[in-house]
Design goal:
486 residues; mainly alpha; two-stranded antiparallel sheet; 2 strands; globular
Length: 486
């Protein structure tokens, strides 16, 4: 299962984020294999299982598009909200299937949407049941993929669209796009992985296996810099810097703003837990927060001067207004899962005629447009599960390395969810896959394994139970005399 998920995570972003039919089909086939392996008990049962309410949310997501494929009598279908003009057009065509009609206005798009949901569901169900050791390997792969995308984006900057580094992408050259088509989608990937890298950096900096058993002096802390764990901390620091630089060179306003928010939230969350148990004390806490504030101050002028304005930014409110009109027309059933690109055309204003608006540039409005009341219920249920998981993680007392990764994944989910207010990253299969993986890390059972002291460690705690020493008999018997017998 771990090897299969690793293949999906590596393959997903390579070919334009898998937005084209062929790579998406390969992802869906891999997802079917992963689901069969996950749901087949003799092959893989998993260490942990989702909670009942989480199963309800997953079942609703799985059935979300299937419900819109249920055929209804044409007369009943024509009476549903917003379907009267389509019923009139279908009646004029005299199609042979006009007697029965699926609930979705465009059934083929609803079917495609259902197939596209399989990879994120398979990744979540597979990763949430893996042991923590295997999950840590997948986290390292995700971090490595984000670093690779960021470095490729840095090399693309200024190379021109004709450069081989742009991989034939005509929108590349003036900004970093990686293997994606749009720079905002690369920013979405980098922004949700950045808090994970910062969390692992905070978990490993200044940390050694003996930190739990005694306080180290400053000399021993400096000696730590020559150990392997210090090099791991340097790796996480370098990875975080590379991801941040890649985000800057995407020139995405929303991506950079959310990165600044992620850095601030990570500093406030991890500053008191550097090394797992705050090995640097109060000075380290204030130093971490100070470094985060310095980075925020340094990124502020970059946000104003270096980023570029989205061509649709001034027209987003026009799009939102027309999408709200469509939501009212199809409420409470919606137009059908995945049907927005076809159905929105009747609501698109004339001033947007020069743009091809395939998405609402707001994930939540698009869900309401397509799913109506059911889509709103699914979104609220997912939000409730996300908030409840924060309370469960906060109630934990131990701070192993995996808890840092969990909190970083939770922050990454928050950032990509906020990005959904102005973009459509979840409609990019690669970003949807990575979002599902971060959700699996966030909802995974905590690491409650007891920490064992290293071999050869000598405890400094006093023990009051001592081993009883054997009493040796005297070497020669001592003669006993009774003075009263004399």
């Amino acid at each position: 299962m771990a090897v299969g998920l690793a293949c999906l995570l590596i393959f997903a972003p390579l070919l334009r984020g898998s937005v084209h039919p062929l790579p998406l089909m390969l992802l869906e086939l891999g997802a079917v294999a992963a689901l069969l392996l996950r749901l087949w008990p003799p092959a893989f049962s998993g260490e942990t299982k989702p909670r009942p309410l989480t199963w309800v949310a997953l079942a609703l997501l799985f059935l979300y598009a299937v419900i819109y494929l249920i055929p209804l009598p044409f007369g009943l279908w024509a009476e549903l909200p917003g379907r009267a003009p389509y019923a009139q057009a279908l009646g004029l065509l005299e199609a042979p299937d006009v007697r029965w009609r699926p609930l979705a206005i465009v059934p083929m798009l609803a079917e495609s949407f259902w197939f596209a949901l399989l990879p994120p569901l398979a990744v979540f169900l597979g990763a949430v049941a893996l042991p923590i050791r295997s999950l840590n390997v997948l986290i390292a792969i995700v971090l490595g993929m984000a670093v690779t995308q960021a470095l490729l984006g840095l090399m693309q900057m200024g190379a021109g669209s004709a450069s081989p580094l742009c991989l034939g992408n005509p929108y590349c050259g003036d900004s970093a796009t990686g293997t994606y088509v749009n720079r905002d989608h690369l920013a979405g990937l980098l922004e949700m992985v950045l808090p994970v890298g910062l969390g692992l950096l905070a978990a490993t900096v200044g940390r050694a296996p003996r930190d739990k058993y005694y306080r180290r002096s400053w000399r021993e802390r400096l000696r730590f810099l020559s150990t392997w764990r210090a090099h791991v901390a340097v790796f996480y620091g370098a990875a975080s810097i590379a991801i941040l630089l890649g985000l800057i060179f995407t020139r995405s306003r929303s991506g950079l703003m959310l990165a600044m928010l992620g850095i601030l939230l990570a500093a406030l969350t991890f500053a008191r837990r550097l090394g797992g148990n705050n090995v640097f004390g109060t000075i380290g806490t204030f130093a971490a927060i100070g470094v985060a504030l310095a980075v925020e101050i340094g990124l502020a002028p970059v946000l104003q001067r270096f980023t570029v304005q989205d061509p649709l930014q001034d027209n987003r409110w026009v799009i939102y207004s027309s999408v709200l009109q469509g939501i009212g027309s199809f409420f409470p059933l919606g137009s059908g899962a995945g049907t927005f690109p076809e159905i929105y055309r009747q609501f698109q204003p004339l001033e947007l005629g020069r743009f091809s608006v395939d998405h609402a540039h707001n994930e939540y409005l698009e869900w309401l447009f397509e799913g109506g009341l059911m889509g709103a219920f699914i979104l609220l249920l997912l939000l409730a599960l996300y908030c409840r998981q924060w309370f469960r993680i906060r109630a934990l007392t131990q701070w192993p390395t995996f808890r840092f990764a969990q909190i970083g994944a939770g922050l990454g989910l928050l950032l990509i969810s906020l990005h959904g207010l102005v973009d459509f990253n979840w409609h990019i299969p690669a970003n949807a896959l990575y979002t599902a993986f971060l959700a699996a890390v966030f909802f995974h059972a905590p690491d409650m394994r007891p920490k064992k002291p290293p071999e050869g460690h000598r405890s400094t705690h006093r023990t009051f139970e001592r081993e009883a020493l054997p009493i040796k008999p005297p070497s020669s018997p001592v003669p006993v005399t009774n003075p009263f017998l004399e």
